[in-house]
Design a protein that fits this description.
Layout: E1 6-10, E2 16-18, E3 23-24, E4 27-31, H1 33-48, E5 53-62, E6 72-80, E7 84-93, E8 96-107, E9 134-138, E10 142-144, E11 156-161, E12 164-166, H2 173-181, H3 184-189, E13 197-199, E14 201-206, E15 214-225, E16 228-237, E17 240-251
Parallel strand pairs: 1-12
Antiparallel strand pairs: 1-2, 3-4, 5-8, 5-14, 6-7, 7-8, 9-10, 9-11, 11-15, 13-17, 14-17, 15-16, 16-17
Helix pairs in contact: 1-2
Length: 270
C-alpha cells in the first residue's frame, strides 16, 4: 500500500483486500460503512462516470455486515441516456452480496428561468491548525477530534478529509463526498449514551461536486419510533451547501458504541 491511507488494496486477481482503516467499531471482523460505500462509489465512477454529467444521486443498500474478507464488485449499466445515466454496483464477499449501490447521473445544463425557494443553511468549520483530518462537533461542545466529547442530545456535525477508497487511486470529489456523507448516520444517531442505531442504507444527493479536500456534514432532522431512526443532513464545502445525506437505521442496543470507553473516531494526520 502507498503512503496515503486507504480502505482497500486492489489485488491482481480483481479482488479488494480490506485494510486496517476499514475496520468497524460494531465488530472486530466487520467493515465500516464508509469503506463499503466508498468502494461502490469509486467503482461506479471509474466504470460509468462521464464528462458533462454530475453523479446526482447514489443510494447504497447495506444488506449484510461486510467482513474483513476479500471483496469484489459486479456492475452493470442500466440506462445510457442522453441526459440521464443509471448504473448499479454489487459489493460481494464470496457468493454473498453485502451491498448494492445505484448511481444516477444527470447531464449539466442551463437552469430554467425564474427563482425558486432555497433553504437557509450555515456551517462554520473548525480551525485546521492541529493537522487532523477528522473533526466532530456539537452545539453543546464545539469541535474536537473525538466522539466522546459529543455524547449529548444537541445537533451534531462532522468535518472530514476522507481517505482513499482504494490504495493508489486518489479519492475524487465524488468519492470524498460519499465517504463523508456516510457520517449522516453519526450526526443523526449519536446521543447521550453513544450510538445504538446501525444504518441499513445511505442516500447521497448532490447538486454539484464539492470543492476542496474537506467536506462537512451537519444534521438537519432526526425522527425515531419503535426502534427505527430516520436522519437527514446537509453537505457543505468551503463554498457552502451542495447536497443532502439520508439514512434509515435500526436499533442495535446489544452492540451500543460508547465513545467514552472506546472512541471510534480516527485521528488521522494525512
Amino acid at each position: 500500500m502507498g503512503s496515503r491511507p486507504a480502505h482497500f488494496i486492489a489485488e491482481a486477481d480483481g479482488t479488494f483486500t480490506p485494510t486496517e482503516f476499514s475496520r468497524s467499531r460494531w465488530g472486530e471482523d466487520m467493515l465500516n460503512g464508509p469503506a463499503v460505500v466508498a468502494l461502490a462509489a469509486a467503482t461506479l465512477e471509474q466504470q460509468y462516470g462521464m464528462a458533462g454529467f454530475v453523479p446526482a444521486r447514489l443510494t447504497v443498500d447495506l444488506f449484510k455486515a461486510a467482513r474483513k474478507l476479500p471483496t469484489t464488485t459486479r456492475t452493470r449499466l442500466i440506462r445510457d441516456g442522453h441526459r440521464v445515466r443509471n448504473a448499479e454496483c454489487e459489493v460481494r464477499q464470496g457468493e454473498t452480496t453485502v451491498a448494492r449501490a445505484t448511481l444516477v447521473q444527470y447531464r449539466t445544463s442551463q437552469a430554467p428561468p425564474g427563482r425558486e425557494w432555497s433553504g437557509q443553511a450555515t456551517f462554520t468549520p473548525p480551525p485546521r491548525a492541529d493537522g487532523n483530518s477528522f473533526y466532530i462537533g456539537s452545539d453543546d461542545a464545539g469541535w474536537s477530534p473525538t466522539g466522546a466529547d459529543h455524547q449529548n442530545a444537541s445537533r451534531k456535525r462532522v468535518y472530514h478529509r476522507a481517505i482513499d477508497a482504494v490504495a493508489g487511486l486518489d479519492a475524487t470529489p465524488f468519492v470524498r463526498a460519499v465517504i463523508v456523507a456516510e457520517a449522516t448516520s453519526l450526526v443523526s444517531n449519536l446521543g447521550t449514551k453513544g450510538i445504538g442505531y446501525i444504518n441499513g442504507d445511505l442516500t447521497v444527493a448532490l447538486s454539484r461536486l464539492p470543492i476542496g479536500e474537506f467536506v462537512g456534514v451537519q444534521g438537519d432532522s432526526h425522527w425515531c419510533a419503535d426502534g427505527i431512526s430516520v436522519g437527514s443532513a446537509t453537505l457543505f464545502d468551503d463554498d457552502g451547501p451542495f447536497g443532502t445525506g439520508l439514512v434509515t437505521a435500526i436499533a442495535n442496543p446489544a452492540a451500543q458504541i460508547d465513545f467514552g470507553s472506546a472512541d471510534a473516531m480516527p485521528t488521522l494526520r494525512v
